[in-house]
Amino acid sequence: MTQIASQIERADGRVELVDTSSVEQSVLYNEDLAPVPIARRNWTTYNFAALWVSMAHCIPTYMLSAGLMAAGMSWSRRFSRSLSATRSS
User: In the chain, where are the structural domains located?
Assistant: First the structure.
């Protein structure tokens, strides 16, 4: 566990703010978007996978695929391109 200024960085990669008063005083502060303390974080692998799937399967993705198909790109090449795009983002 490493402490850097106003945050604690844990060995597993999680980061937690020590003093949130400076963030809470900002005019841009919003309770819904505020950093969540580690004790209140409850997302599991299922939650992250569900978010990823719901973001990947949407109308713009299907429109992109249809456009690539209309342009003559093969299904295997489209599939490999979509895999590489999701890994890099």
Answer: 1-42, 43-89
